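Q: For a teaching handout, I want to show students what a protein-ligand complex looks like in token form. Below are the inputs, and the small molecule is (4S)-4,5-diaminopentanoic acid. Please produce the holo structure.
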Amino acid sequence: MKTDLSQKLFQKALTLFPGGVNSPVRAFRSVGMTPLFIARAKGSKIFDVDGNAFVDYVGSWGPAILGHANVEVIREVDEQLKNGSSFGAPSPKEIQLAELVRERAPWIEKMRFVSSGTEATTAAIRLARGFTGRDDILKFDGCYHGAGDPLLVKAGSGVETLGLPDSPGVPADVARHTLTLPYNDLPAVQKLLAERGPSLAAVIVEPVVGNMGVLIPRPGYLQGLLDACRQQGTLLIIDEVMTGFRLAPGGACELHGLRPDLVTFGKVIGGGLPVGAFGGRPDVMDRIAPAGPVYQAGTLSGNPLAMAAGIATLRQLGKAQYDRLEALGSRLQAGLVEAASAAGAKVQVNRVGSMITVFFSSEPVFDAASARKADTKKFARYFKVMLENGIYLPPSQFEAAFLSVSHTDEDVEVTVAASRKAFAEAALA
Ligand code: HOZ
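A: Here is the structure, written as tokens, with (4S)-4,5-diaminopentanoic acid included.
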């Protein structure tokens, strides 16, 4: 595979950006490679500057659920662009997108649009603290809720990928208010809430974890969290940045019949443009300024271009699309399991709908500790062989791969065929 141009650009990028990138996991460091520079993308494919084509399972880290360069999204964004790209004033598309959100997730009675998932989770934590008058929060080891200070404690995603336990620069006084427990251990949460509930503002959780690779909640775990929170007046924040509008129209909350206090969104809600949102109970949301005293603001919040992309995306996601994603996911999972077994590779293939991770481990993976047992050297070898065979996976053992409705049965077949070779080579690593 020719990568001369990517490598040349990366050398230049190293002089301009820390590590040559604008977000850490893109750097390919944990797989011992340097990143490819992407020239364009269409449907399920991305094309790098050297002219290599790949079946894409990164999907912009989640937003590209329809596939890249979707015609309807382009049309809506183009139409809006001609009428102005940012007003710093209310505009009708904010209402249209909010109504689409509330139709799909009626428990989001009120919401606020922001520009990223990080902004959404950071604001939701501030709101929970302002609403309850409490300072402590609880998160789970390996869950990643963006790069805001209070949540960069035992975080997954790039933090885990780079092996940085906690980030310097987060004041100890901030971090001490963030308690952590293992994911999927309900009795531990019940015990902590019984002891420290009166000081806990919120529990925040990825309902299906994507940022440690895919981890699946045990039956009853999420409802158990909500019940335990309710007993103490602690708010439950379901972080649907990855799962929202991806696993079902109403996200993981719909799948699990959950009615949490607050939900955070990002990725799919912006259809590839920068949008995040947080919302939920109106009595809680009405504590946000100017209705209430908890401050939150943003120049590009509710940006009309981004709203247009979100509207065009949500409108195209109906039952047929979710059924298709499930069918593709199930086919891919079965193919990967079969390919690994034929190659003698010991793996766990965790999947919910269109989110999937192959863990190089012989034991079930259900929390951060079991995910960390995965063999990252074998993963790196697998990743490289897949890339050389035209398959672009997330360059980390601790990230989810995403399918889109543009992926074809043939894409899945090609991926499984490449996996046969890649698993065989990984087994030797
Ligand atoms: N936080 C994203 C995945 N968990 C990665 C963002 C990016 O590198 O673009």
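A: Two things your students might notice: The CA atoms of residues 149 and 170 lie 6 Å apart. DSSP finds 15 helices and 14 strands in the chain.
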